[in-house]
Amino acid sequence: MRGRIYDSDGGPKGNPHSRRWEKGVRGEDFMIRIDIDICKRCGRCARVCPSAVYTQEKGEVPVVRKAKNCIQCGHCVDVCEAFAIQHSDFPAENIHRIQKENIPSASSLMELMKSRRSNRTITPAPIPSEALSDIFEAAYVAPTAENSRKVKVTLLQGEDIQAVEDATMKFFLRLANILMSPMVRPLTKLFLRDLYNEAAELYRFERKWREGKRPCTCNGTALLAFSTPKGYDFGWQDCNLAYQNASLMAEAHGVSQIYMGLVQTALKFIGRKKTECLLHLPKNHKLYALMALGMPAFYYPNYSDKPKK
Fold it and tell me: How far apart are alpha carbons 165 and 213 in whole angstroms?
């Protein structure tokens, strides 16, 4: 759509020397404007825009040429020191000056990452609402391919977690009954050695499950399911970037987080429709990561250096 140039009163183009808002261009459903009174003409917006929305002649105010290409990433408004760019998707109240004193140092961030553990001593204690809110926010702000923002995080609690636990245990017990049956067992031992060796662990899980515990979901009081629409090319990458953000935020709040690889393995065989139903995924979404959360009985006082391989 062809852009229009706006005067300070928002009307159509008039005397070019009197206008305040320069080169206001409407894309599909948003407006981008540059305030020429405060623009420093540094050209940073043109340099960082991944979609070539802006062009600039040396020393001049950047020009909005291809607003329809905008992917709403916010690079331009965040790089502008003068707050000269007005973007309808990023109103002034949503743009914040970075408080560098609040950013953790490299050493403190490394300490957090090295001390992070899959602490499975989860108790029935509820996760503080503030912590859960921050975990969701951390997942939301994770980078995505082309700023697609297609990741959805679904929260499961209570009976919904129990349903996932039951489905997982029943799947593996059915599988074990086949692989460990008298006729198949020798073949399992010969060709599926890892599964054969894990049979004892499975039966230990079964005992806990029949006692009313949830070994497959680590007794988590919350499950987070990370999904994107089916057919999206970067679903795995985007979901696991969001997972990593959420995991670090959970660790910062003292909330245990465990990757649900065992459950995800079962869900692959249970079927897409049943998985969508069990996890309450948005319609036509595919699961890429699953996290159990909960408050631990205690914390690790130490961390050890990982053996070099």
Answer: 9
Residue with tokens 């680590």: 218
Structural domain for 212, as ranges: 115-304
Helices (H), the chain: 44-48, 75-79, 106-115, 129-140, 159-179, 185-191, 193-197, 199-210, 235-252, 261-270, 272-279
99 within some domain: no
In 3D space, the residue among 29, 130, 179 whose CA is nearest the CA of residue 89 turns out to be 29
CA–CA distance, 242 with 271 (Å, rounded to integer): 24
Q: pLDDT tens for residues 37-66?
A: 999 999 999 999 999 999 999 889 999 888
Assess if residue 2 is contained within a domain. Answer: no
**49 with 192, same domain?**
no
Chain segment 172-210, per-residue pLDDT in tens: 888 777 766 677 667 766 666 676 667 667 788 889 999
DSSP labels, 256-299: EEEE-HHHHHHHHHH-HHHHHHHHTPPTTEEEEEEEEEE-BSS-
Asked if residue 25 lies in contact with residue 64, where contact means CB atoms within 8 angstroms, the answer is yes
Let me know whether 72 and 140 are in one domain: no
What SS3 class is residue 97?
coil
Domain boundary among 63, 94, 125: 94
Which token pair is 103?
A: 């950013």
Query: d(Cα 285, Cα 287) in Å, to the nearest integer?
Result: 7
Report the C-alpha gap between 239 and 237 in whole angstroms: 6
Number of domains, the chain? 2
Q: CA nearest 209: which of 162, 269, 176?
A: 162
Residue 226 near residue 290, CB atoms below 8 Å = yes
Residue for token pair 């977690």: 161
Answer yes or no: do 69 and 134 share one domain: no
Name the pTM for this structure: 0.82
